[in-house]
Design a protein that fits this description.
Keywords: Membrane, Transmembrane, Transmembrane helix. The chain crosses the membrane at residues 6-27. The chain has a domain at 1-30. The protein is 56% helix and 0% strand. It has two helices and no strands. The radius of gyration is 29 Å and the shape is elongated.
């Protein structure tokens, strides 16, 4: 009987901790606390680089539309 009560108490505490961490994580994501603020500081310190001109990596004929005839 005592073991069962101890199990119930531990189970309720674990479920409570899971709920608290979930709610706090949701609140932190809404108000952008924590990790998101760290990302903005790192991106601000990086230098901005212009993207280089990309060349076409496919053959000229690949992906082009071609004329077709309907055969009856």
């Amino acid at each position: 009987m005592l073991g069962f009560l101890l199990f119930i108490i531990v189970f309720v505490l674990v479920i409570g901790l899971i709920l608290i961490t979930t709610v706090l994580g949701f609140i932190r994501s809404i108000f952008s606390f924590g990790r998101r603020a760290d990302k903005t500081q790192n991106s601000a310190s990086e230098t901005y680089q212009q993207p280089s001109a990309k060349s076409k990596i496919f053959d000229k004929n690949e992906g082009e539309y071609v004329d077709y005839e309907e055969i009856k």
